[in-house]
């Protein structure tokens, strides 16, 4: 099970809004200038992910909770997102190459197949994304901030 800590932003009617910080190892690597991951991290959100999760237990802002998600569902999602467009790219490229016998047609087929694969992956993920296996679960809840007292 993959685990991650998040901070509660708010809790209303059994739904908690959570704030999870992005962890990246880009600052510890010496190949930052030539690394594609470093460039992609610059394009995305800078510091956090915000998500909502169901919680029957009342939570208070500032409280930390540990979330978990099964590796199998994470692997299945990654497989869907990466392999569906790739399969569409190869399939349509080969189909257009055999039908029109042209490299330009194969390139157009690859482009259409890749875009079609992304659309198919988005449709499948929208259909199966609400299943319980693909949702994170609360593993543990820390004490509320006002319950902790440090005396020196």
UniProtKB/TrEMBL annotation:
The keyword Membrane applies. InterPro entries: RseC, SigmaE_reg_RseC_MucC. The chain crosses the membrane at residues 74-98, 104-121. It comes from the Bacteria. The keyword Membrane applies. Keywords: Membrane, Transmembrane, Transmembrane helix. This is SoxR-reducing system protein RseC.
